[in-house]
Amino acid sequence: RVAFEVQDPSIPLRVLKEYVSEWSHLSLDSIKLIHSGAVLKDDNAPLSSYRLRPNATIQVVGSSETTISASSPGGPTQKSETSTISQIHKQLTLVRSSLVPSLENFLRTLPTISDPQPAVSVPDLSGTPFPPIQKEHARLSEMLLQSLLSLDAIIVDREWEQARQERKTAVKEVQGYLDRLDDAWNSRVR
């Protein structure tokens, strides 16, 4: 996690991506920024057009794989089982560090049929109140689904049994978080 202050909301998204690229050591073209479940696509659009507010959370999705051109001494980079497992672990770590705390906080404040106390707007760790309950549910669902898609997009060769097992385990874990969210949402007081 990193926090930074944007002094000028008219700066283009490209500047924010450059900052994230420097911070994360990911290539600029491999970075996707996500805010409130939406991918921030237009690099030339000002940050203000994305309705970023103080203490906003932006998820960074990127690939740490580097490619070496064919003219390099080693030729093109070959993806290994170890690098694939590392990519799976990075995605799972991202879910655990950025989504699970928000999920746990949301589940604690969601009124259920067995505990019909009205939900209170409880501040998150940054001190900002939760968005309305439906928006937070939609955001968490979307982010978990995007994580599942990211895991699904990781290509694992048939021979890589350990990588296949790691991806299967990671998908089950993220799907478990999504199931918990959906179960709690379906048993909430309406």
Describe this structure in words.
- The chain has a three-stranded antiparallel beta sheet with strand order 2-1-3, covered by helices on one side.
- The chain is mostly helical and 190 residues long.
- It has four helices and three strands; from the N terminus they run αβββααα.
- The protein has helices at 13-24, 81-109, 133-152, 161-186, and strands at 32-35, 38-40, 59-61.
- Helix 2 (81-109) runs antiparallel to helix 3 (133-152) and helix 2 runs parallel beside helix 4.
- Mean pLDDT is 77; it is low at 66-77 and 115-124.
Helices and strands in order, then pairings?
Blueprint: H1 13-24, E1 32-35, E2 38-40, E3 59-61, H2 81-109, H3 133-152, H4 161-186
Antiparallel strand pairs: 1-2, 1-3
Which overall shape is indicated by the principal axes computed on the Cα atoms?
A: flat
Straight-line distance between termini: 35 Å
* Low-confidence runs of at least 5 consecutive residues: 66-77, 115-124
Please give the oligomerization state of what you see: single chain
Short description:
This protein is mainly alpha-helical and 190 residues long. It is 46% helix and 5% strand.
Provide keyphrases for this structure:
mainly alpha; 3-stranded antiparallel sheet; 190 residues
